[in-house]
Fold each of these.
Amino acid sequence: MASITVRDISKGFSGQPILRNVSLDIRDGEFLSLVGPSGCGKSTLLRIIAGLEDQDGGAIEIGGRSVDAERPGRRDVAMVFQSYALYPHLSVYDNMAAPLRQRSLTQLQRGFGLARLLPEARRKEAEFRREIEATAAMLGITALLQRKPAQLSGGQRQRVALGHAIVRHPKAFLMDEPLSNLDAKLRDTVRAEISALQRRLGATFLYVTHDQAEAMTMSDRIAVIMEGRVLQIGTPSEVYHDPADLRVARFIGSPRINVLPGEVDSTGRPTLLGHAVDFKVPSSAGSRVQVAFRPHDALICSADDARLTGTIQHMENLGSDILMHLALPGADEPIIVRESYETAARRRLGDKVGLKLDPQKLLVFDEAGSARLGQDAPVKTKAAS
Ligand SMILES: Nc1ncnc2c1ncn2[C@@H]1O[C@H](COP(=O)(O)OP(=O)(O)OP(=O)(O)O)[C@@H](O)[C@H]1O
Ligand SMILES: [Mg+2]
């Protein structure tokens, strides 16, 4: 297994920059997810690491060795694509054997059936069989080895594609949205299987997904890429609880984070939607800030008990919880608050309610959203706003 170093990689297509000086250190044995909106260059970066695409600038190292001059086959990384290309006319067994035969057998041995009977080829085939059977057992696909891909379910096909990558014992796995073709239930199952597999193999995984829930549950660390740059790299908990940039805060977390613009008054407190609130922010008087909070970090109260008030516009039933969408006068988008089913059952669409924020849980950013501002303790004991 091996570490992967991505240093200052830049890449554009037809003069349009896609990746701008992207740097990443993926440790040996680490599971690192790459997340970001569609089109931000995730697949492009993976293809550059695999050697399927040339970078315009920067360098790639695998296992501490520069691979920029090496063709894909020599880089010894296994790429698993979203649409796992299996050979339809070959059995599962032969699909898994293909990369091994490709690598080990001479063209003569591969091309002519008879040549496979030669002692050297037979010894190698026996080796492949042991490898394929052990991998199939690990993935729970032993019973499927003689089937053709068309006779498999989506999840089974996905496991075969993984098997195809694993038998080669690559230095690292590069996975490009490998679960996006599966239905929700199967995705949960295969997701858990991939995590377990990674732990068992102790392998280095670079895993691309635009499903942030997938990234949160599987990764040691997550790198958030947007507009061609790495905005933040950290543990799932760091990117969720401690986002460095408002774009990261907006991207990570479902339902999305709430954001209210504010202006700091002469006492250091921000005015949100025209209402002064009871906490200070570390920004000078007159400066504009963006105050963000997660749907479970706010409370709905009586309209008489809060300065921020609004009406219930929509209720989204998640089963155990309800997401309340509040329309606040002056706010660009509804504020989402998560409530228990019991609490929400008392409420009706159109009710006028108050919104209480927990000052300890607020994330305050500068006006551009690109810098996180530290936060003072609340100046009053009474809950803010
Ligand atoms: N060979 C190519 N020629 C021209 N433009 C390309 C090429 N490959 C990718 N692009 C463009 O580069 C950008 C990044 O593409 P990429 O496939 O890396 O995005 P992505 O982050 O993987 O998106 P998604 O989440 O939709 O898979 C896109 O705007 C895409 O249209
Ligand atoms: Mg992609």
Amino acid sequence: MSTNIDNKVVVITGASSGLGEATARHLAARGAAVVLGARRTDKLEQIAAEIRATGGKAEVLATDVTRKEQVQALVDHAVRVFGRVDVLINNAGLMAIAPLDEVKTDEWDRMIDINVKGVLYGIAAALPQFRQQNSGHFINIASVAGVKVFSPGGTVYSGTKFAVRAISEGLRHEVGGSIRTTTIEPGAVDSELKHGSSHQQSAQFVKEFYKLAIPADAVARAIAYAIEQPADVDINEIVLRPTVQEF
Ligand SMILES: NC(=O)c1ccc[n+]([C@@H]2O[C@H](COP(=O)([O-])OP(=O)(O)OC[C@H]3O[C@@H](n4cnc5c(N)ncnc54)[C@H](OP(=O)(O)O)[C@@H]3O)[C@@H](O)[C@H]2O)c1
């Protein structure tokens, strides 16, 4: 059966684990050609090989989203191989939880570089291509921590995710017409994200909290729902949580 996902070219940053990996597998199984970016190319190659083994289309490119030329190269690679880009999923992210009093400024820098500037570099790379095609779909991964401040500990992470929502809403407003923008705001989802905190007490808290996490597939299905709508329907925001999650 042909769907609005079949044959779409979908570029995914942070596709080597968690939500990005699950989304790549889900969309590829539904007929999308996926182009996977992350730093761990061994993981990307393995995921792509498994997708191809079941008849899917997958390409990989080493991509550090803090390097704008690498994000541009990822989008360019998709265009070179498949001729177009239909969807860019700005998914790469880091969650380093610690109270502000710990002044972990290196981690603040990394979260801002990956979670905020990485998304902007994705927009910079794909927007001219989308304009040229007169179509395209940005899907930016924010968080429930971008709806409600996750403090103490998650203040800077929340700041980056509030920024993603603000940028996404401005993007939607500025480029709407033929280009769609969706922001996904997940609650606790099982992935490697929970291992990103160097502050021991916070890491322990996160480990306990994530016992209620739902599988990454849940986010993949939400993303598929946004993509499969007809071109004149733009799903702007999806918030999803484990049913038992309060925050
Ligand atoms: N899991 C949750 O509960 C949850 C909830 C809300 C929002 N989110 C958001 O969902 C997104 C995906 O996270 P996840 O939960 O799937 O965590 P994850 O399993 O840790 O995945 C993070 C991905 O980002 C990539 N990444 C990290 N730094 C990168 C960089 N500099 N350049 C390129 N890729 C980079 C990692 O790949 P490499 O290390 O190979 O580069 C990995 O593929 C993040 O934006 C996160 O904030 C997650």
